[in-house]
Amino acid sequence: MTHNGHIDGQTQLVGIIGYPVAHSLSPQMHNAAFAELGMNWRYVPLLVQPQRLAEALRGLLALGFRGANVTVPHKVTCIPHLDSVTEAVSIAGAVNTIRIDASQGRLEGLNTDMSGFLTDLAVNQVSVNEESRVVILGAGGAARAIGAGLARSGAEIAFVNRTLERAVQIVDFLRASWESCKVKAVGLEDLAEVSREATLIINATSVGMFPYTDVSPWREGVPFPKGAVLYDTIYRPLQTKLMRDAERSGLRAIGGLGMLVYQGAAAFELWTGKKAPIELMRRVCLEHLNQS
Ligand code: ATR
Q1: Which of 75, 182, 241, 274 is catalytic?
Q2: Which of 70, 137, 162, 218 to mutate to test the pocket of ligand 1 (most atoms within 8 A of CB)?
Q3: How far is CA 174 from CA 37, 52, 144, 159, 183, in A?
Q4: CA separation (Å) from 43 to 76, 78, 148, 191?
Q5: Which CATH number do you get for residue 125?
Q6: 207 C-alpha to ligand 1 centroid (Å)
Q7: Is it the case that residue 178 has pLDDT exceeding 90?
Q8: pTM of this prediction?
Q9: Which end of the chain, N or C, is less surrounded by CB atoms within 10 Å?
Q10: Which domain holds residue 92?
């Protein structure tokens, strides 16, 4: 059934809970997808202060929302307020998508960041296996989700972080989940050592993100490993300083736009049961990123 674009009594709502939330590209991406498929659905930004998170989540149920995304700073703190979470959430330690079962009055927490990252790697034909040596820069939520997503591949994974203690925590957690996983934690001063034979380098820090675009998380003077692939989870800007520097050293560099699109597409499909118009979603994000 096509829809003529009006909001009416049948309009279904989803949204994104964050603080701040105005910068999010998800409303544009999802609303364009709904329009393309002629669906009477809308996606709204929902600015929720940390101390009102529990109220806001129950409010989604009361207001008949069909689902939501969750972003900074609520990805971890929302977990105790949900009725259930998936295995991916337990592993990643964070929720980015909520599915609402209105008939049961239940909120289910999911993580499509992790699957979005793995899908984008696959789409870019980057395979990760027992032979791979992965360096993950960072030890926040993004690093943990990505590391957890890759740990089962059998790859050797080094978490390199300014604050060593945070990297150690991730490694301890992953080892407790999969005894056989090959993970280690090092400080930034050991980047040269662990990256020498790396096949895949992933930036999961916020260093280089708009508006501080002239900095890179790569330590000055450390050579990039030959033949490696660099994946930067940052998508604003589309090309980061790290990506430029890596390309100059002959590496293939991939930005975070695909991860953004595939996490969104996975959420769209969970809420609506329909196949997401992925290319349109990518185009919409690109247009907005090129404008800003
Ligand atoms: P997210 O959940 O999005 O991953 P986060 O938990 O704030 O966000 O993590 C941000 C990551 O970027 C961390 O690894 C952080 O390093 P610390 O753990 O030492 O804070 C890293 N990061 C942020 N700013 C940095 C900087 N200027 N130099 C080096 N690392 C930085």
Answers
A1: 75
A2: 162
A3: 40, 32, 9, 11, 8
A4: 22, 20, 29, 41
A5: 3.40.50.720
A6: 7
A7: no
A8: 0.95
A9: N
A10: 2-111+260-291
